[in-house]
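Question (not urgent): is this output format expected?
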Amino acid sequence: VVTWSSRDRTREGIERDFSREDADAYAAFAERWERAAERARPLMSEPPDRERWLEAVGPGILESSVADELRDIPSEQVRVPFAVQGLIGTLAGPEDPGTAFVGFYHDLGEAAGVPGAWGYARGGMGAVTGALRSAAEAAGARVRLQTPVASVLQSDSGESLGVVLEDGEEVRARAVLLNSDPVRSAALAGVEAPAGWRQAGPVVKVMVLLDGLPDFPSWPGPEPWRGAIDIGFTLGDLTAAADDARAGRPAAAPWIEAACQTATDDTLAPHGKHVLSMFCQCFPVDVDAEAAADTAIARFAEVCPELPDRVVDRIVLGPRQLEERFGITGGHIFHGEMLPGQLIEERPDRRRFGGIEGLYLAGSGAHPGGAVTGAPGLLAARAVIEDLTPQAP
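Got this back:
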């Protein structure tokens, strides 16, 4: 199944390769989700309000399984790539409640120009944080690197006064915004983590350096490398991978979403080389990451047999390695599952995190959740401005 930024082009391909019935059902599904996305996008930059989200998208998208949302598409092969979007970064199978919203959430972006389309930041994701830093410094901010924070500095009455660095230095401030996940933020603040918070990441990230782009036998040439590549053949495959991880086993047949950024941005690797980033699921938190990478590469080779011989180097980050490298507890990319019980008002409040006045949660653990949106930080920043701005008499 090949999907394009153009819904009409995707529909034409599905009709050609599968059936008119599949194409019509896909078009109806895509139209329904896009209309809901138009209503939901403004809510991303507003405080959490479940009733408004229900009014915008309905209980089906907000609470049901992604498999249920796709049920009208006759061919399972056509349903699978859309089902994968409901499982990204999530320890769940396609029949699990709430996975429809995970998939829908990934349709809310507009950064690439076409609503719902994905894109690459030229120069890599570091270019995004570099731009943010430049803008902040131009506005007068001071950025300190390699400066670990040990704890939140508090008054005897439980108000935030700033932070204490690992070297003992105190940095005082009228407000403290934490971009760390809720569990790590709670540890820094010396409070209990949110009760029952689910943050066991199921992802092993495998980044490989290739000495050239191999061919897919089903689609030779460079074109397929310019988009996301999903490896997962049936809904049963997706379910089995989640079941394995829940039972504490690495997925025997992991599903993969891969992207080759250098197919569109040649600044990210030496001339003639390419970088392939593979998002592999599902795995338990304490998985042997290198063994998981071997399994994932073998799985990818089922559709691209030349791949293993093209690999010249690799970096593998399982949940524990993601935690050690980036400080994300459990290696969960969304700072906690975005499933029922952890959505909208059920995510920690941006204000008074842990009951501490002047302490704000600005990361993906807050509403509206993960992915590269900046929305939790925007909402936290607005809260700080509101709270520190003197009120007119």
